[in-house]
């Protein structure tokens, strides 16, 4: 089983965005990670190219998994639903039903099959869009599912989901990434997935605020002549 | 959203086996179900044909979802691992890593997107193979994940996973099915997926014992001249 897993000691979920890209560099200091990127019908599929570029830059193997998500229920899946241009206190229409639950479940299946006992996810519950599946109570509940619902879990040697950035600000995450040499010019955060970041969606706003608070320039924008 | 879901009031996970087929008939007395059948690389893909036949016989819409499971870690995914010919007290090699966790996660995504608030799963923790993801503690833990990790969950109007057969014997399930006219000759339980049920794998043994205890003949075997 471990042989099939090629000696990986961790799985890292990659989205092509800032948090998961930083996480990959953060994890690879200590582990031999396998990256997983999910194709789930997202309208901003440009993030997939970014995730693959980041994995390549980090020298990490990556697995692409195509998932049959519903074509409705989220502004990221259904182009007839518009993406808001300001941050809100409510869960925004860019929420994708059960996204991280599905992602972690598949990662869990591969982890258990490959003999890998750690899954890292770059969720953050400080500078975030309010998605329920980015919060500590969700990660805790999912780990309980692993303990009671998997073979390794009931044998007491289960897989564990770790979210080391969950309580950090975006600026703190960026500072870690800059110290680790994360090539942020390769990452992609904008929900709109056009040629240039829109600068107004949740994800662009959180990213811009993070770089500002970190006292750094966003190399993605510098590259595009936007800063 | 409800419009997209075509007015379904429940999702039923279908495997083509005895429990989920009985469940479909049990649920459709009270709900308008959508069946979901998963293609996950199982070697006994004959069960998929059975699931589709059962849904057709029941007059229920069915959605086929293809999932990228690992190709190792289970005798049902990897033909180089043999299927045991006797029941064991340990979790057998036919265990598929995180299978029901993945299935429920995807069903949850569709349920939330379609505005459906009940997901039925035919798991049973009495006459079963000892899989951890068939037990009440697993279903409870997954329902907790829904409450804290989905939009509808945190809004207090979340989806719920229901497993009405979880504490029943196989014979009790069969008796319910016979009373509801479930066409058991269309179902498929054998893990080996040959032309005829092998009669010796876990699943065949549990099925045979169930019919015997219910005092009934298995119409699948009668059809094949095996009883």
CATH class of chain A: Alpha Beta
- How would you describe the shape of chain A? globular
Rg of chain A over CA atoms, rounded to whole Å, is 17 Å
Overall helicity of chain A: 25-40%
- Integer count of domains of chain A: 1
Mean of pLDDT of chain A: 92
Task: Tell me about this structure.
Two copies of one chain form a homodimer. The radius of gyration of chain A is 17 Å and the shape is globular. The relative contact order of chain A is 0.17. The first copy, chain A, has one domain (about 10-225): HUPs (Rossmann fold). Chain A contains eight helices and five strands; from the N terminus they run βαβαβαβααβααα. Chain A has about 230 residues and is α/β, with parallel strands linked by helices. The first copy, chain A, has helices at about 20-30, 45-60, 100-115, 135-150, 150-155, 170-180, 200-215, 220-225; strands at about 10-15, 35-40, 60-65, 120, 160. The longest helix of chain A is centred in the middle third of the chain and has 16 residues, at about 100-115. Chains A and B meet through helix 3, helix 4 and helix 5 of A and helix 3, helix 4 and helix 5 of B.
Q: In summary, what is this structure?
A:
The structure is a homodimer of 227-residue chains. Chain A is 38% helix and 11% strand.
Key terms:
homodimer; alpha/beta; 8 helices; 227 residues; Rossmann fold
SSE topology sketch:
2 copies of one chain form a homodimer.
Chain A: E1 10-14, H1 18-28, E2 33-39, H2 46-58, E3 61-66, H3 99-114, E4 118-120, H4 136-149, H5 151-154, E5 160-162, H6 170-180, H7 202-214, H8 219-223
Parallel strand pairs in A: 1-2, 1-4, 2-3, 4-5
Helix pairs in contact in A: 1-2, 1-6, 6-7
């Amino acid at each position: 089983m471990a042989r099939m897993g090629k000696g990986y000691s961790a799985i890292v979920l990659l989205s092509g965005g800032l948090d998961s890209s930083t996480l990959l560099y953060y994890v690879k200091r200590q582990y031999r990670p396998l990256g997983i990127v999910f194709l789930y019908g997202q309208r901003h599929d440009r993030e997939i190219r970014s995730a693959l570029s980041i994995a390549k830059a980090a020298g990490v193997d990556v697995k692409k998994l195509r998932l049959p998500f519903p074509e409705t229920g989220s502004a990221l899946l259904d182009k007839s639903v518009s993406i808001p241009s300001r941050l809100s206190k409510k869960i925004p229409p860019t929420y994708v039903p059960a996204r991280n639950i599905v992602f972690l479940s598949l990662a869990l299946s591969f982890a258990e099959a490959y003999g890998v006992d750690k899954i890292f996810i770059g969720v953050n519950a400080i500078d975030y869009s309010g998605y329920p599946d980015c919060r500590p109570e969700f990660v805790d509940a999912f780990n309980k599912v692993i303990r009671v619902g998997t073979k390794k879990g009931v044998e007491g040697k289960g897989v564990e989901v770790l979210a080391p950035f969950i309580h950090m600000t975006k600026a703190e995450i960026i500072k870690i990434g800059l110290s680790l040499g994360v090539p942020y010019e390769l990452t992609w955060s904008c929900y709109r997935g056009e040629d240039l970041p829109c600068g107004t969606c949740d994800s662009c706003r959180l990213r811009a605020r993070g770089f500002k608070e970190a006292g750094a320039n966003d190399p993605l924008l510098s590259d595009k002549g936007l800063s």
